[in-house]
Amino acid sequence: MVEFMNQALELAKEALTAKEVPVGCVFTVDGTIVAKSRNCVNLTRNPTRHAELNCIDQVIEHCKTNNIDHLSYFKKVCVYVTVEPCIMCAAALNNLNVLEVVYGCANDRFGGKTVLDVSNFYENSYILTGNLMADEAMSLLKQFYKGTNPNAPESKAKKKKEM
Amino acid sequence: MFEEPATKKAKLDPTTMTEKDIISDYINKIKNSKSNLQAVLSDELSHTIETTKVYIASIKDKRNISKAIQVLNEKLPLNELSHLKRVRKNTILLCQSSTVNTSTIEEYIDSKLPELKDVFELFSEIDVPSQAPKLKRQYTEAMKMWSCNFHPDIYLEKLSGDHFFPEDELNLHRTFMAIAFEAAGWYLKSTVKEITGDLLQAVNSSVVVDPSINSVVAVSFDNRLRHPVQHTAMMAIDDVARTQDGGAWTRKTTCNDSELSGIDMDLLEHLRIKFPDTKFGAKKFTSKEENIENGEKENTGPYLCTNYYIYLLKEPCFMCSMALIHARVKRVFFCFENSEFGALKSKAKLHTVQSLNHHYEVFTGFL
């Protein structure tokens, strides 16, 4: 588990270097990594390009190329992600019936467990474990939020201040 | 409103009858709807107000009222019930029932406020609103229980009423919803022989509009059978990203002109014929770097789906509803409820979760 989370943290660091929200993710099946990615929201100008959704795309591509039924394949997937999946990603992972989700630090802004427990709305939800190397994951987020999101327009509060 | 003459109906090609009928049936229903759209409001606004129990008592001698208020406010402050008035006529609100830790309220007052011994009589327990009323209707309801403070909010009153949109604006919303139906028909026609009502409710399509120029920015259709994340709202967000020189998913036929790249080229041609009075295309996108180069201080072009509206056939699921929050959409309109997974009315009201960083308005009631 630690090994996979370490990989996810490496991807999160890569995101930070690319000035993206530092979240990294790897998917495993039977203990082998089958997808790995990080946030790329600013690059794509698409706010849904979270690490988890990028990994989902990789798995679907893999299944298509190898003629595997992705619906049954996802049921074997374990997700290692540095930050608790947001409500959107948690819903996506529930839709796909993944086996397990392990995350680093909690997400008190968008968390699919912390802010709104998405699993309540699905019959069978995955096994969810948090707090694996949470400090490392959190410290990356703190480094990012010390700077500002380069793509966001200036906030109203900030504008007012300048005036 | 008006029926097509029977002769014209009979001329329709029988092979396209079913599909034409159900789509144009809905479009006609929407266009001829007599009712205004309804906002989906938080439970706090739409349900009857919640209550909590408090103790009250009468003042034996009116001259003691001001002293009693002073002592009570100091020693038993109302805290989260601060919207309630302390006094109503000769009756005074003592405290919330849940704070009383003695067997009777009389004992509690005697022990907590010895200086007010023998000031009260006729102790009783009543229900009072546990939160400040937000709407006039709630205020009237609340006042039947106990006097309380109320600050009317004109916008909220209008939003909760039956006349929110003026008729000319309603027609615009109905047209954009009609485009969502037309697009669903266009996409389905290429994959199935017959469009049934059940099929139409099992898929979803969406139209993104920039209301500042009343122009259609993106038209997107569900691809969930081939890709489980590609629900229409997820596609729409990516289509909008493409109009801003971004995007993650590839499409079959899109325009090189980035303002029109949110809509399939063949579909655009079809929609332009069907809706000749509607504008299509996004405002020109400029990146932050370009803005700085041009000496503009702030970002003037579009950013994500900020200030955009989205019209969906069906209430979006949790994934899509949250995606639309990430995208900072301003308003979400939908036609059919999604009883199984709908996150904006049926199963939850994600747009009313206070702790989220963005909140859009949700409207329904097209049929």
From TrEMBL, chain A:
Residues 1-114 form the CMP/dCMP-type deaminase domain. PROSITE patterns: CYT_DCMP_DEAMINASES_2. Gene3D superfamilies: Cytidine Deaminase, domain 2. Keywords: Hydrolase. The keyword Transferase does not apply. This is CMP/dCMP-type deaminase domain-containing protein. It comes from Loxostege sticticalis (Beet webworm moth).
Automatic annotation (TrEMBL), chain B:
The keyword tRNA processing applies. Keywords: tRNA processing. InterPro entries: Cytidine_deaminase-like. Belongs to the cytidine and deoxycytidylate deaminase family. ADAT3 subfamily. This is Uncharacterized protein. The lineage of its organism: Eukaryota, Metazoa, Ecdysozoa, Arthropoda, Hexapoda.
